[in-house]
Amino acid sequence: MYNELSKLSNVKQSWQGKVRDIYDLGEELLIVTSDRISAFDVVFPTPIPDKGKILTQISIHFFKQTQNIVPNHFISDKVEDFGADFMPFAEYLEGRSMLVRKTRVIPFECIVRGYITGSAWSEYKRSGTIGGMLLPDGMLESQRFATPLFTPSTKADSGHDENISYREMLHRMDEWLAVKIKDYSLAIFNYAHDLLWDEGIIVADTKLEFGTIGNEVILIDEVLTPDSSRFWDKDSYEIGKTPLSFDKQYLRDYLEKIGWDKQPPAPELPLDVVEQTRDKYTKIYKTITKDETRQW
Ligand SMILES: Nc1ncnc2c1ncn2[C@@H]1O[C@H](COP(=O)(O)OP(=O)(O)O)[C@@H](O)[C@H]1O
Ligand SMILES: [Mg+2]
User: Fold this and answer.
1) What ligand is nearest to the CA atom of residue 30?
2) Is residue 278 part of a domain?
3) Considering its fold, how many domains does the chain have in total?
4) pLDDT at 2
5) From residue 194, how far is each of 114, 121, 197, 273, 289 by CA, in Å?
């Protein structure tokens, strides 16, 4: 299943997330993004070719663009900066790897929602709330909120993340830190929403992670990718309808359609699902980076 890793077998791998392979280099980490895809917290046996490169390139693009809004962990994506151990694997690492500053991860996922969809829409239909917070009556699917909502969840080591209210998050951590990551998250969301609006894309929501080095708070992991965000087609967007999207939603919808019980092991994905997912990721990559030359 993870055969691409065998190419790196003489370097000690420190840990593996659902999508990323992490090498601990002391004060720095090398984050290698594989072509694995997960949905509902389960990793699929079928890779999406080049997905790791697409996610890495989008993240690097936005880490650079947003560094004046929020400091982040990015150091370098040049294989020669990774150290001699990694040089034999340059071909695999190229484009899908980032040297970053190692932080203490803040164990919350910082989710910002501009529109009601996904698990927020499900909760709202059930109880009129989102993350326990009461919302106005009568909202329709995909409707825009008056202002973007900060709806954190816990970052579970295993199993599913739990949605909590901002108030609950404040109870569970230092207040100054909670305020800071909330403000940073909203700033990133607003930046991206305004930017991509002009490109015909609606950023419906996004998930961010933060870490600390001493008292310094920095954005880590990935930023504004189709794994972590919902990107909708602005021209065909309609309140009350499920929008056309360029992200992982297509895979989630397929999995709901085939009635998968969301328990491991995940099924193999058919070729057309792999190709459509890849097309969506490629399309959003091009819109964001304006790079038309890459032959993915
Ligand atoms: N700069 C950083 N310092 C410490 N940990 C990080 C940093 N950037 C990312 N991480 C962690 O590395 C892992 C990335 O792997 P990923 O496959 O995305 O994991 P997950 O299954 O948790 O989504 C995550 O656990 C993330 O919190
Ligand atoms: Mg992740």
Assistant:
1) 1
2) no
3) 2
4) 47
5) 11, 23, 5, 30, 15
